[in-house]
Amino acid sequence: MNVHEWIEAYGRAWRERDADRVVGLFTEDASYNSHPFRDPHVGSAGVRAYWTKATRDQRDLELRFGEPIVAGNKAAVEWWAIMRLDDGSIGTLPGCLYLRFAPDGRCQELREYWAWKEERVEAPEGWGL
Questions:
Q1: Cβ count within 10 A of residue 6
Q2: Which neighbouring-strand residues pair with 80?
Q3: DSSP character for 117?
Q4: Cα–Cα distance, 60 to 21 (Å, whole number)
Q5: What is the mean pLDDT of the chain?
Q6: Is 3.10.450.50 the CATH number for 3-114?
Q7: Helix extents (H) in 1-129
Q8: In terms of Cα–Cα distance, which of 84, 104, 82 is closest to 94?
Q9: What are the domain boundaries of the chain?
Q10: How far apart are CA 103 and CA 101, in angstroms?
Q11: Cα(3)–Cα(116) distance, rounded to whole angstroms?
Q12: Other C-beta atoms within 10 Å of 33: how many?
């Protein structure tokens, strides 16, 4: 699996809130750091627990990824997500993934950086290039 295929599969899993699919994209000992000020979620069980909790109230997800920057086994890619939450509110969640891949194409380390705004905000012109 190459970086573009991995990002596509990750996006599909996010849209479908499919924890099994997400776990399959990571090594069994992966580190998933969902925010710079949080402890990482480690291993398949940690990724599954975080993913299930993080996506449980997201609905009608509109998700875009920018063009990834790839250097060896590392990549960085921006994303822009607009979603409805279970309480009916709409929010915008733009962010960036830093990814480090194992030789088999699964992710061994993920670090995300993101911001949240409780309203719909479209991506600015030229975003993600």
A1: 19
A2: 64, 94
A3: B
A4: 19
A5: 96
A6: yes
A7: 3-16, 19-24, 43-55
A8: 82
A9: 3-114
A10: 7
A11: 26
A12: 18
| Neighbour tally for 53: CB within 10 Å | 12
Q: Which two tokens stand for residue 39?
A: 């402890």
Q: Determine how β-strand 107-114 pairs with β-strand 26-33.
A: parallel
Q: Is the pLDDT of residue 64 over 90?
A: yes
What 8-state DSSP symbol labels residue 67?
P
Q: What are phi and psi of 70, to 5 degrees?
A: -120, 135
Q: What's phi and psi for 32, nearest 5 deg?
A: -120, 105
Sign of CA dihedral 34, 23, 58, 127: positive
Q: How distant, in Å, are the alpha carbons of 13, 111, 118 from that of 69? A: 21, 15, 29
- In tens, the pLDDT along 67-116 reads 999 999 999 999 999 999 999 999 999 999 999 999 999 999 999 999 99
* 65: confidence class by pLDDT, cuts 50, 70, 90: very high
Q: How far is CA 121 from CA 7, 9, 29, 84, 117, in A?
A: 22, 25, 36, 13, 8
